[in-house]
Structure formats: structure tokens, C-alpha cells
Amino acid sequence: MTSKKDQQLQTERLIWRAWLVFIVLLFGSLVAETVVHTETKFGPEELPFFYAWFGFASCALIVLFSKALGVVLKRPEDYYEE
Amino acid sequence: MPYKREPTMPIFNTLIDQLLSTGFPPGLILILGGALIAFLPRYGGYAAAIVSPFLTLLYITHIPQSAAMFDAPSVHLAGHDLLTIWIHPYSHIFSTVFCLAALAGGIYALNQFKRREMAAAYIYAGSAIGVTFAGDFLTLFLFWEIMAIASTLVIWSHPTAAARKAGIRYAVMHFIGGVLLMAGIVAHLTTGGQLEISHQTTLFADITAPDFFTSPASLAPWLMLLGILVNTATPPFSSWLPDAYPESSVTGMVFLSAFTTKTAVFVLLTVFAGNKILIPLGLFMVFYGIVYAILENDMRRILAYSIINQVGFMVTGAGIGTTLALNGAAAHAFCHIIYKALLLMSAGSVIHQTGKRKCSELGGLYRTMPITMVCGIIGALAISAFPFTSGFISKSMISSAAYMPEFEWVWYLLLAASAGVFLHAGIKFPWFVFFQRDSGLRPKEPPENMQLAMIALSVMCIVPGFYPQIVYFLLPTTVDYDAYAHGHAVTQLQLLLFSGLAFFMMLPMLARTRTISLDIDWLYRKPLTHILLLIDRLAFFLKDLITAMTLRYLQGTVDDIASIHSAEGIMARNWPIGVTMTWVILLLGVFLAVYFWVT
Fold it and tell me: Is B82 helix (H, G, I), strand (E, B) or coil?
């Protein structure tokens, strides 16, 4: 039992560390934009951190759209075997 | 005379030059390799599987990249002079990657060595190479159809009822595509078109031009395009891919993912480059693939939908039509074949070791399958176009080609799609298979040959990320493009990392359910089947009705005749003697009365 609990604690610790690394990377990418010169051609690109919020918003919209479509399209696994 | 080169290996070079001058198609080496695999004993088959892709590569490297340096020989067959070695701008890059895919797939499949599947797969790969060097529509069509048959055999090599049924649907779809292509070719030839495919100019550069429609020749490219779009898996002709590919064996799908769709992309780049209609079609494919992959639970179906998504990028590139876009589409096909094969090998290894293919049944495999996990993640990073992977140096070419005021909306959509790719394939596949939760499964790593194939392809996903020229070298023009210029790596990293954030924040919404999602194949698997069953029942009802009515009429006639002439009928009835006597006396009386009256 104890070993299982230890394992669980270890996994949780690992997850927290992964989140920490991820957050550092997220901030790192934002900071990098201010350091590296990036090319801009279209209006919205000049907004700060365009790629960050555009990527986030695109994914959120895609997930929501897929979820809504799933309500109509999802069927049980044996649908075609009936 | 074919192209001459430095005599480093004189005898070998002379032999290859001889073969080149006879018009021996490069794809035929792999096709013969496939035949040897089918008939040689086990170890002979192994040798054929390893040696034939190498020989094909060697042969291809002897064909010069520039058409001007090569006098194309013709092969006389069935009353036609066929051009079997014809150097198109993208012949080399496509044929090279087809060889690599066949070789990697062969190594991956060695431990299982399913003779029928492997033989069909090599014939399939060889005919795909045949298409890339086809100089006329007849040669193209010939190899195109061999591909359809051989790939169907690859699917059928998996001995399950699901594979058999999906294989039939696959074959029907591809034969319809073949008929459309053939009809287009015939229309092209009968309206004054040439059998030869020019390698100088794009044959059908603008098939939506208003003046083009007034010409009777306008039908030809549209029919051909429809036939090709069946193979690129463009909706509404797309569902054969996620329907059939995941039903093949784990090794079969590695082969299947490489050739059909990419050969079709090659033909688009060669004959239809610059047609703006391809842009919306490609963009639709991109998002269709993402949305369906998000809804999917079966990991190989996720990867199947992501093939459509990735081919969508290439079709969009073909539609944009600038040199950068076309080069980008070809380079992306090259990189895609490698990382998609790697992803499928990783997924295949999991299926091979656990027997499970659904995300809802998997999870936590990182503990016992670290090599498979790392290779899978490398493939996932490459498909997501992470900087320093192959996907980044090719996909960014297509995005950069769209980075012009006239394609502004295309560029935004491609950018959103790049984020979506990371979502549906880049994180979803490794997360649900290797992490997510502890499924309790503790499988071992797959056999060494499968690991070797995965590691080799992982290297091929990483190295071009650092040295893009390895891929650009195979393109027809000198590529003056730096994927890492203008802070592209930083912006791409930002896009992907924040897409990742969206994924993890919306994870509860992405929880897998034990469901399937209806696709276009629903139309022919449900309503069309019901309509056919209804027609069948109606036909049986009519048959029964007509039979019953005919029988009734005949029975009536027979009864009428029987009532007079049968044993029971009036004419055959036994009458009592008294009645007969009475009738005789009566008739005699009548006769006498009449006689006396008359006389």
C-alpha cells in the first residue's frame, strides 16, 4: 500500500514539475519575441504576443466546434455492425 | 544517350546506363522485388525486401535531375510509345521518399514477414514510383491502377472481417476514381490533347477560367481532377482513408500511409499547379482532418484523419502555385511521409505489444515503452512543425508562400491549422497513449527490427530540422529560403506552446468516449444500403406479385380446360345408360318430327 502511495506522490510531483517547465517555456517564448526581431506584414500581427493568443484562441475554437459537432456525429462503436 | 557520369564503378554504371536507355522504369525494380518476396524462401524474401529499395534509390540517383540532360527513351507497348522515364520537376523528391518509406516499412515488418502483404506493399511502392516518372497519361494510368489493386491487397492481407469489408469499400472507391481519371484522359485525347505530359509547363494551369468553359476540352481536366481528388482523399471522397487504412495490419498501414495520397499530390503539382480552386479544397481538408481527429478514439484513425489534414496543406500549396508554394508542398510531402510512417510505427508497436488500439483503453505506457514513446513524440513534434524538426522546414515554406496580401486569409487559416495540428496529433496521440492515466498495461518494447525502423525515421525527422538543405537539395530549383529567418522559430514556438496550453486547459472536454463519428461513408454504408435493400425488397415483391398473377391466370385456364376435358370434365364424364337412352329416344323423336315436317 505504502509503495503505491509513494508512487502516486512521485507521479504528482512529476506532473507539477512538468507544469513548471511548461510555464517557464510559455513565458520564455513570450520574452523571446521581445528580443528577436520578427517580421510583420498584416495588421493583427503587430498586436503584442499575436502568435500566443492566436494559437490559444484557434485551439479553443476548434475544440468547441468539434465538441458541438460531436453531439450530432457521435455514435456507438458498433453502429455499423447492427 | 542517357546522362553520362564519372566512371566510379564502370561496370555497374554501364549496366544502369543500359537499363536507362531501354526505358526500364525505376519503379519496376521494387515491383520485381515484390514478386521475389512472394516466391522466394523466407531469407531470400528478407534479402529482396532490403536490397530492392536500395537498388531503386541507386537507379534513381543515376537519372539526372534536369530533363534537359536526359534523352527520354520510349517503350513500345500495345501500339503506343510509352515514356516510362520522364523527369518532372518533382520526380526525384517523391521517388526518393517512396524508396525510403518502402525500406523503412520493410525493416519494420521483417519480424512478422507476412509474405502476401509485403509483396503487395512493394508492388504498391514500385507503382507509386512508376507514376512519378510517367511521361504520358497511359503510363501514369497503368501504374495508378496497379497501385489501387496492390493497396487493396495490402488491406486484405489482414485476416479480419472488418479488413475484408473495408477493403471492398476502398477498392470500389478507387476504381471509381480510376474510371474518372481514364474518362478524363480519353476526353483529353479526343479533344486534341497530347498523350505526353509536358515537363516544361503546367498542362492545366487554370481550369476555372471563364473562356476555358466554352471549349469542349474543358471536360477533360475536370474529370481527371475528380479522379485525382479521390486519391488525395479530398471530401467528399475522403472517408475511404480513415475507413480502410486503420483496418489493415500494423505493418500494412505504415506502407499505406505513404503512397496513394502523396502520388496524387505529385500529379496535382505536375499537371494542376496554380489552380486556385485547390486552395479552398486544401483548407477544407486541413480543418476536416483536425475536427474528426479530435472526435476520434481509435489512435490509428486519429493518424488517418491527420493524413488528410497534412495532405490538405500540400493541396493548398499546389493551389497557391508559386515556386515557393510548390517546392513547399513537395518538401512537405517528403517530410510528412517520414514522420507519418514514424507515428504509425509507434502506434503499431503499441498495438503489436498490447493488442489495443483505442485511447480509452491505453495510457501510462511511458513506463515500459520509453523508446516507442520517444520516437512517437519525435514524430508528433515533426508533424506539429516544431522548430528543429523536418515538419518546420517544409510547412513553413507553404505558410511563407501564403504570406502575401492576396492570400492573407489563407495565411490566417494555415496558422490556425498549424495550431490545430499540434492539438489533434502533436499532443493528443502521445498524451492519450503514453501518459494520460495508468491503464495497468505493462507491455515490453517491440522487437529490435521495429525499434530500428523507428529510430532511423526519428533521425530522419530531426536531421532536416538542422540541415534543411538535405531536403531542399532534391527540389528542382535552388531553394533560397531560410525557415529560421525573421524569428519564425520564435513565433512558431509561441503558437505551438499556447496551443498546448489550450489543450491541457480544455482536457476535460477532450476526454475520450467509446464512440465513432459519422463521416461521409455513412451515406453509402447506411442510407444507400437501406435504399438498395428497399430496391431489393421491391424487386422481390414485384417478382412474387408477377409470379402469383401469372400462376393464377394459368391456373384459371387450366381449370377451365380441365372442367371440360379432364377425367372429371363434362366430356369425359360417365353418364348412366338410362340418361343416354332418354337422350337417344328424344333426339330420334326430334329427328322424326323434323323429317315428317319437311317431307
Answer: strand
- Which tens digits make up the pLDDT trace of A11-54? 788 888 888 998 999 888 888 888 877 777 777 777 888 999 99
Residue type, A76: P
Residue with cell 323429317: B595
Flag whether pLDDT at B308 surpasses 80. Answer: yes
Provide the grid cell at B99.
524508396
Amino acid at B205: A
Whether the CB-CB separation of B446 and B310 falls below 8 Å is answered with no
Measured distance CA(B330)–CA(B446) in Å, rounded: 32
The closest of B158, B183, B335 to B253, measured between CA atoms, is: B158
Smallest Cα–Cα separation from B349: which of B453, B505, B422? B453
- Nearest-CA neighbor of B166 among B107, B246, B256? B246
Cα nearest neighbour of B523 on chain A:
A80
Mutate to test the interface with A, among B366, B494, B499, B520 (most CBs of A within 10 A): B494
The alpha-carbon radius of gyration of chain B (Å, integer) is: 33
**Cβ atoms of residues B276 and B266 within 8 Å:** no
Residue B27 contacts residue B126 (beta carbons within 8 Å): yes
- Please give, one letter per residue, the 3-state secondary structure of B437-459: CCCCCCCCCCCHHHHHHHHHHHH
- CA–CA separation, B308 and B251 (whole Å): 20
Cell of B316: 493548398
**Complex ipTM value:** 0.90
CB B472 within 8 A of CB B479: yes
Closest-CA residue in chain B for A66? B291
Identity (one letter) of the amino acid at B559? Answer: D
CA B97, B99, B101: angle at the middle one, nearest 5? 70
Distance CA B357, CA B342 (A): 16
**Interface contact flag, B487 A39, Cβ < 8 Å:** yes
Across the interface, do A73 and B510 touch by the CB < 8 Å criterion?
no
Q: Tell me the pTM.
A: 0.87
